[in-house]
């Protein structure tokens, strides 16, 4: 089993978005969601900021942000595969909610961006300094005692009203990768992670 597939279980860090958000003026207080266990009993932490309803109100179509799909370099990540898989899962979840993916030149109603990183590439202190958001997830005794097997990572997904570098809504999730976990279980966990992160985005028929 490759460490690439193990690292997919992670929710990792949206580096470019976080850097861009360092100058963002927030009017809404970040919302911290209670940690929960996935189907594989992996504890994750999540925090969100912004008003997602103001972005998707009357919206039906979205496109990928041309600059905000970033993977922080890490020896265990195959960037092109991680990006492709993440886009596939985000597209699938938004599609289930009724939103249609279109090209950037087709006047989308909003844009989507995301980014990924491992803790060894970007620490919680760096995330907090750049974005003012951190999920506050800490290692268990087992995880702390086995750093070669476990590593924390983070994922940020952001929604934008236009082509700018400041997201109008963003959600950060953190979790620990178990490099020895079964590949199919890792895949299910990552799918569940994307679903949970986008839970706040309402389905079109509910607006």
**Order of the strands making up the biggest sheet:** 1-2-7-6-5-3-4
Helix content: 25-40%
Roughly what is the average pLDDT, rounded to an integer? 74
Radius of gyration: 16 Å
Strand content: 25-35%
CA-to-CA gap between the ends?
A: 43 Å
Give the topology string: H per helix, E per strand.
HHEEHEHEEHHEEH
Helix tally equals: 7
Number of strands: 7
Give the class from helix and strand content and strand pairing: alpha/beta
* Low-pLDDT residue spans: 1-28, 35-42
Q: What's the overall geometry? A: globular
For the sheet with most strands, the description reads:
7 strands, mixed
Task: Kindly summarize this structure in a few lines.
It contains seven helices and seven strands.
Describe the structure.
The protein is of the alpha/beta class and 207 residues long. Helices cover 30% and strands 28% of the residues. A 7-stranded mixed sheet has the order 1-2-7-6-5-3-4. Helix 4 links the parallel strand 3 and strand 4. The longest helix has 18 residues. The protein is globular. The N and C termini lie far apart (43 Å). The relative contact order is 0.29.
Attribute tags:
about 210 residues, alpha/beta, 7-stranded mixed sheet, 7 helices, about 30% helix, about 30% strand, globular
What topology does this entry show?
Blueprint: H1 3-7, H2 15-20, E1 31-37, E2 43-50, H3 52-56, E3 61-71, H4 79-96, E4 100-101, E5 110-118, H5 124-131, H6 141-145, E6 150-160, E7 169-178, H7 183-197
Parallel strand pairs: 3-4, 3-5
Antiparallel strand pairs: 1-2, 2-7, 5-6, 6-7
């Amino acid at each position: 089993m490759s460490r690439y597939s193990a690292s997919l279980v992670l929710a990792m860090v949206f580096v470019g978005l976080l850097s861009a958000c360092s100058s963002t003026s927030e009017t809404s207080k970040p919302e911290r969601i209670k940690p929960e266990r996935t189907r594989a009993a992996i504890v994750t932490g999540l925090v969100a900021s912004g008003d997602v309803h103001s972005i998707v109100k009357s919206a039906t179509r979205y496109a990928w942000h041309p600059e905000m799909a970033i993977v922080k370099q890490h020896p265990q990540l195959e960037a092109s595969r991680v990006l492709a898989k993440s886009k596939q899962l985000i597209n699938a979840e938004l599609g289930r909610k009724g939103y249609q993916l279109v090209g950037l030149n087709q006047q989308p109603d909003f844009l989507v961006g995301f980014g990924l990183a491992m803790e060894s590439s970007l620490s919680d202190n760096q995330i907090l300094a750049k974005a003012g958001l951190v999920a506050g997830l800490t290692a268990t005794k087992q995880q702390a005692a086995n750093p070669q097997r476990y590593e924390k990572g983070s994922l940020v997904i952001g929604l934008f009203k236009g082509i700018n570098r400041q997201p109008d809504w963003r959600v950060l999730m953190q979790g620990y990768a178990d490099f020895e976990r079964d590949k199919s279980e890792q895949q299910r966990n990552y799918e569940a992670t994307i679903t949970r992160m986008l839970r706040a985005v309402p389905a079109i028929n509910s607006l």
